[in-house]
Write a structure and sequence with these properties.
By secondary structure, the chain is an alpha/beta fold. Helices cover about 25% and strands about 20% of the residues. Strand 7, helix 9 and strand 8 form a beta-alpha-beta unit. The longest helix has 15 residues. It is globular, with a radius of gyration of 24 Å. The relative contact order is 0.12. Keywords: Carbohydrate metabolism, Cellulose degradation, Glycosidase, Hydrolase, Membrane, Polysaccharide degradation, Transmembrane, Transmembrane helix. This is Endoglucanase.
């Protein structure tokens, strides 16, 4: 990979942390026959029938196809995924995620089927951290990832995941106002026969949870490694929703390489909205080895349709494109993190804290304002320039990855341009977080539309890929502000 993960004892392998199928082609998709999909749907419908609805569930619930709080207030999730089960010591991430503007966090747990089991005591601590930091907490079991696929031979079934949730029930009861239960992450891979059972298996898991006593909003992931490129969840979602006695199931789509085209994003999201079915984008990225993701459209369309989303992920990936901050250091955001946090339709612009947590103090100040100063300020005008640095974040034979950080001076700026020279035979081939212009000696990077305006001492980040041998020393950078 381009950058190794933070060295953590017992950290999972690359496949364990983020296992993704190769990009799906039209030829591959044709292998899944309409007959197989219809047969699976018919068998599922015959096996399930809607049961009598209970009273409105306590806490977060579905109303008219929307996710709402107990009092009926609309709840639009805007958050981040956090890989807790592999990095259990990084509990400070919850405060950092909140400080980034998120109103929710999706927390990776393990049932013990593939990785070290998170105990009820550990989960209780996570729930407390969510409440302390005023974050809606979506808990998910990751061990189900890719079940039925040859590349995931140890994946657990949804039924095994429910065994784990049954053990957690005494821990989670009473938390319905701010905790959602995501039964199993990406519960099936790309095996056609397995995916044909998605509806029946998902419904059975929901009904078991209700029998245990869970009154939480339940979140269910799509097959095809969460991306539903064969449209199984799309076809069977209405029947799965009808099988929930509490009518309190939310569907989750994961958007990676399959959603490289804007229209594919729009079509999928609009299908659920038009059908009156609750949907969140439970994971999405921006760049993958299996194809780029149209993250701008994901964010813009989710905002237009008032749908929730949770970006993957805060830190700890073996794939550096997906780390929002490097080494769990909130002061060291990547270009991806900067995009999600500060970019258009991002966390700071769109996230609204759940009303259940209550607002801050509302009493007005009682003291009269102090007299204004009478002397004119004598300090000189603030410097309106900027500085910039470049560093190499990873390298491999014939290529490397780098990061540009631009920092404003003592006053706000409305735009910036950074330039630096490169050794002979070395070039920047791809850049994100800005506009790239190659010169005879190196490159010039101009701010993107969403990260040019910086507050005093504020910073923006751009990432890039290079060809040739990585520079042995960090290039000197010239920065010009406007």
């Amino acid at each position: 990979m381009l950058r190794s993960p933070v060295p953590i004892p017992d950290a999972p392998s690359t496949a364990a942390v983020r296992s993704r199928p190769a990009a799906v082609t039209a030829a591959t998709a044709a292998v899944v026959t309409v007959a197989a999909l219809l047969a699976g749907t018919a068998a599922f419908v015959a096996a399930t029938a809607p049961t009598a609805r209970a009273d409105t569930p306590p806490g977060i619930h579905v109303s008219d196809g929307r996710v709402v709080e107990a009092d009926g207030t609309d709840l639009v999730l805007r958050g981040v995924n956090h890989a807790h089960t592999w990095y259990t010591h990084t509990t400070g991430a919850f405060a950092d995620i909140k400080a980034a503007g998120a109103n929710s966090v999706r927390v990776v747990l393990s049932s013990g089927d593939q990785w070290t089991r998170n105990t009820p005591e550990d989960v209780r601590g996570i729930v407390d951290l969510c409440q302390e930091n005023r974050l809606v907490c979506i808990l998910e079991v990751h061990d189900t990832t890719g079940y039925g696929d040859t590349s995931a031979p140890d994946a657990a079934t949804l039924d095994q995941a429910v065994d784990y949730w049954e053990d957690l029930y005494p821990t989670l009861t009473g938390t319905e106002d701010f905790v959602m239960v995501n039964i199993g992450n990406e519960p099936m891979g790309n095996d056609d026969a397995t995916n044909a059972t998605w509806g029946a298996e998902t419904s059975a898991a929901i009904e078991r949870l209700r029998t245990v006593g869970y009154e939480h909003a339940i979140v269910v992931d799509a097959p095809n490694w969460g991306q539903d490129w064969t449209h199984v969840m799309e076809a069977q979602a209405a029947d799965v929703f009808a099988s929930d006695p509490d009518a309190n199931t939310v569907f989750s789509i994961h958007m990676y390489g399959v959603y490289a085209q804007a229209q594919s994003v729009t079509d999928y999201l609009e299908h659920f909205v038009d059908a009156g079915l609750p949907l969140v984008v439970g994971e999405f990225g921006w760049r993958r080895t299996d194809g780029d993701v149209d993250e701008d459209v994901v964010l813009a369309e989710a905002e237009r349709l008032d749908l929730g989303w949770l970006a993957w992920s805060w830190s700890g990936n073996t794939d550096p494109y997906l780390d929002m901050v490097l080494g769990f250091d909130a002061t060291d955001p990547s270009a991806w993190g900067t995009r999600v946090i500060d970019g258009p339709d991002g966390l700071r612009e769109t996230a609204v804290e759940a009303s259940w947590f209550g607002g801050g103090p509302t009493d007005p100040p009682t003291d009269e304002p102090t007299d204004p100063p009478t002397d004119e300020p004598t300090d000189p005008p603030a410097d309106q320039g900027c500085t910039a640095t470049v560093r190499v974040t990873g390298s491999w034979p014939g290529g490397w990855q780098g990061e540009l950080v631009v920092t404003a001076g003592d006053a706000p700026i409305t735009g910036w341009e950074a330039s630096f020279a490169l050794p002979a035979g070395v070039a920047v081939t791809q850049l994100w977080g800005g506009s790239l212009t190659s010169t005879q000696d190196g490159v010039v990077v101009t701010h993107a539309a969403w990260n040019g305006a910086l507050a005093a001492d504020g910073s923006a980040t751009a990432g890039f890929l290079g060809s040739g041998t990585a520079p042995a020393a960090a290039p000197a950078v010239t920065c010009t502000a406007s």
